[in-house]
Design a protein that fits this description.
It is globular and about 40 Å long. The protein is mostly beta strands.
Length: 171
């Protein structure tokens, strides 16, 4: 839904109720991408997911629940609030979206049940909080869950805030 290269083909906003595919999915909105309602089940189930929004992905009080193996997300403002089930790789899906990125203002809150692999070497930083303000919080839930990277570069940056990494085992 939407286009990473043509805003005229992109809806103003996307409300997700439940989407499923065995393939990769791309959701692009000129405004926000949010969940329709509030429930704990996966809103998006896919092999991989690319999210791009102008004014936020999920909300602080209602993260978008996903069940994906590969993930990239970007927004200009409003922050990124996601909760994923299953080990996940952030980055490396498309050169159009670099990992998990908030451009100007907003927090990144990402909770994952399983390990988090940071794996995109195309940008200045893989997980980037807003430049004006924005904290980055990554949480890997599970006794054997790690947060790690397979690239040799700066992977997490929060110019306008703090970085918090929580893992069941190692960071």
């Amino acid at each position: 839904v939407g286009s990473l290269s043509n805003t005229a083909l992109t809806p103003d906003s996307i409300l997700i109720r439940q989407m499923r595919t065995d393939a990769f999915m791309t959701l692009v909105a000129n405004g926000a991408i949010t969940e329709f309602g509030a429930d704990p089940t996966a809103d998006v189930t896919a092999a991989g997911l690319i999210l791009s929004a102008g004014s936020g992905i999920g909300t602080t009080g209602n993260a978008i629940e996903t069940q994906v193996t590969f993930l990239e997300a970007e927004t200009t403002t409003g922050g990124i609030n996601l909760a994923n089930s299953g080990s996940v790789q952030i980055g490396g899906l498309t050169p159009d979206v670099a990992g998990m990125n908030v451009v100007t203002s907003g927090n990144i809150n990402f909770v994952n049940n399983g390990f988090i692999l940071l794996a995109d070497g195309t940008g200045g930083s893989l997980v980037h909080g807003g430049d004006i303000w924005g904290n980055v919080t990554l949480t890997a839930v599970g006794v054997d869950s790690d947060i790690f990277s397979n690239i040799d570069q700066r992977v997490i940056m929060a110019a306008g805030g703090a970085i918090t990494l929580n893992a069941g085992r190692d960071v």
